[in-house]
């Protein structure tokens, strides 16, 4: 699969503006981002890149005082896994009950002395895929999962990325998880991480978009989707049809300002808002299918 590498230069550089830029670029097909000294580097499948839409989004960029320029080039064939092994990420601790790490970097004392006994450890070996727990949206979904009675539940993970959300649900007691992603690297990476975390016998990662649900039998007690707002709005009707009566839908990947748009769409499909989290203007909501 061929990708474009797009270097965004922000003036001045601002971390909050970079987060907002990533959200906007996601609407133009971008899947993955890296921070740079000048701003942000994004990766988008060549066949999905909508340059006109990106230009329109940047013209109306809702962050005053920031100018953005960008250049486009073909992404070189790189060993993404080798790069990851060299860099990794600092461990993430979620509510003293969940540790997300890369297998090489572990929380050090005193960070771990207060963890609840039998806290959950998730190892993520990320190739070019979203979902290590370092982003607010991933952490909020994981935090939400900690509060749910998942024992024996069947889970659907839309845009699975590294598979982190499915792995978390399975380690919390879910019986089975099915995940899908349009990126073949992500689908392979999710399968790899399932093996590392010893849940591969209960996790089925698939390559495809929401239409793949037409080939999956049965319904799901819990559905998770941590993807951009426009895809959520477009895919919600098909996702709703795969939800069990009284099932839950966890959505993230969007800003707090987008909540009314998503909850209105959800209400039209018989989904009621039952929970909400916010972190640095990012949002996570929980919806329940009405009987």
Structural key phrases:
2 domains; 291 residues; 14 strands; Alpha-Beta Plaits; four-stranded antiparallel sheet; single chain; globular; 28% helix; Rossmann fold
Give a structural overview:
The chain is α/β, with parallel strands linked by helices. The protein folds into two domains: 3-77, Alpha-Beta Plaits; 81-289, Vaccinia Virus protein VP39 (Rossmann fold), CATH 3.40.50. It is 28% helix and 32% strand. It contains eight helices and 14 strands. The chain has helices spanning 15-26, 51-59, 80-87, 136-145, 164-171, 184-196, 229-240, 259-268; strands at 3-11, 30-35, 39-45, 67-74, 92-94, 98-101, 120-123, 154-158, 176-181, 203-207, 220-226, 243-255, 271-279, 282-289. The chain has a seven-stranded mixed β-sheet, sandwiched between helices. Strands 2-3-1-4 form a four-stranded antiparallel β-sheet, with helices on one face. Strand 9, helix 6 and strand 10 (203-207) form a beta-alpha-beta unit. Helix 4 (136-145) packs parallel to helix 5. The chain is globular and about 50 Å long. It starts with a strand and ends with a strand. The mean pLDDT is 86.
Radius of gyration: 18 Å
Question: Overall mean pLDDT score?
Answer: 86
* Strand line-up of the largest beta sheet: 10-9-8-11-12-14-13
What is the terminal separation in angstroms? 42 Å
Order of helices and strands: EHEEHEHEEEHEHEHEEHEHEE
Q: The CATH topology of the largest domain, please?
A: Rossmann fold
For CATH, the homologous superfamily of the largest domain is named as Vaccinia Virus protein VP39
Structural class: alpha/beta
| Proportion of residues in β-strands | 25-35%
Provide the helix percentage: 25-40%
For the record, what CATH class of the largest domain applies?
A: Alpha Beta
Largest sheet, strands/sense/barrel: 7 strands, mixed
Supply the CATH architecture of the largest domain: 3-Layer(aba) Sandwich
* Residue windows where pLDDT falls under 50 for at least 5 positions: none
E-strand count: 14
């Amino acid at each position: 699969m061929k990708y474009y590498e797009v270097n965004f230069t922000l003036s001045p550089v601002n971390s909050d503006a970079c987060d907002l830029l990533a959200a906007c670029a996601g609407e133009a097909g971008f899947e993955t981002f890296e921070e740079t000294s000048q701003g942000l580097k994004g990766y988008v499948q060549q066949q999905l890149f909508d340059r006109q839409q990106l230009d329109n989004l940047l013209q109306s960029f809702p962050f005053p005082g920031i100018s953005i320029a960008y250049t486009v080039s073909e992404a070189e064939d790189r060993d993404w896994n080798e790069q990851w092994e060299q860099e990794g990420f600092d461990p993430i601790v979620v509510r003293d009950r969940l540790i997300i790490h890369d297998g090489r970097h572990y929380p050090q004392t005193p960070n771990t002395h207060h963890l609840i006994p039998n806290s959950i450890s998730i190892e993520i070996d990320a190739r070019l895929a979203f979902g290590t727990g370092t982003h607010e949206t991933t952490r909020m979904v994981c935090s939400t999962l900690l509060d749910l009675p998942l024992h024996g539940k069947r889970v659907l993970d839309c845009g699975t990325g590294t598979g982190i959300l499915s792995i978390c649900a399975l380690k919390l007691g879910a019986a089975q998880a099915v995940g899908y992603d349009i990126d073949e690297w992500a689908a392979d990476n999710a399968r790899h991480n399932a093996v590392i975390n010893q849940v591969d016998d209960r996790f089925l990662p698939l390559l495809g978009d929401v239409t793949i649900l037409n080939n999956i039998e049965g319904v799901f007690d819990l559905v998770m989707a941590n993807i951009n707002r426009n895809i959520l709005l477009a895919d919600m009707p098909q996702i709703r049809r795969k939800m069990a009566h009284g099932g839950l839908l966890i959505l993230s990947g969007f800003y707090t300002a987008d909540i009314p748009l998503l909850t209105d769409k959800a209400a039209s499909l018989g989904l009621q808002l039952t929970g909400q989290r916010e972190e640095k203007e990012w949002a996570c909501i929980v919806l329940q299918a009405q009987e």
